[in-house]
Design a protein that fits this description.
282 residues, alpha/beta, Rossmann fold, 8 helices, 11 strands, globular
Amino acid sequence: MSFAADLVAQLEHATAGQPVPRVRALHLPPAEAAASKSGEFCALELDDGALGLSYVLLDHTLQRLIQSGGGEGLVGMEALELARAFAAPSGRAHTASQDPAQELRRTLGFAACNALSRTVMDRMGFAPPRATDSIGGIAPQAGDHVGMVGLFSPLLKQVTAAGARLTVVELNPDYAGQYDGYHVTLDAAELQGCNKVLSTSTILLNHTVDDMLAQCRGAERIVLIGPSAGCVPDPLFARGVTLMGGSWITDRAGFIDALRRGDPWSAFAYKFALTASDWPGR
């Protein structure tokens, strides 16, 4: 079973016999914010107040959502019905076989999965612990071979300054090559030699999570971080992820207002770091 199918099944199980919230609204950043960090995510709001984020800068998703009416037709839909679109069969990332309409639906389905996950956690009375650093506690050291899935430019020095060897796996061929202190490759198989891996949460959305994690079986730590890492973590822990780090929204109204204006929203959420030992599970 794929990660997406596993996640949807987990949410179906977690909400069985309970009221399933419906979509209240889709909140988008303004088009002009797409060039900044404040324009990278949409937020799907459910009628119980839960919010779920999804990345919207893959393949002009934000522009397409705006042109399509900003999620018109979603309001009133049962969140689980929309979440199932995330697990619908799809083409591989960045191929001509992708159907733009289907990809939009998957993006919104992923946001619904994250929103429903927040519903589940709120019903459990659970809030994840705050992160203590920006690299998921991988604690790079001399002698480590750290794999980075997605180029986290602000985090490069934290790894290389510790004397660790660093290999970055990217989908964009423009980044490939040897740099000062690290190597960028398009070959995910190079992760097999890494004992610690730090990955962007975008792999949850772009169809690569199962393949990437399959290359990390030899790693002692696999950390997945990013604002859209907001799902129930069981399917990730089952695939070897040791820590999931995301954004826990603490002020819904403030967050929505900032996102819709294209302003920074970090004041309305905190960064969390969740391990299997922290998670009471389902």
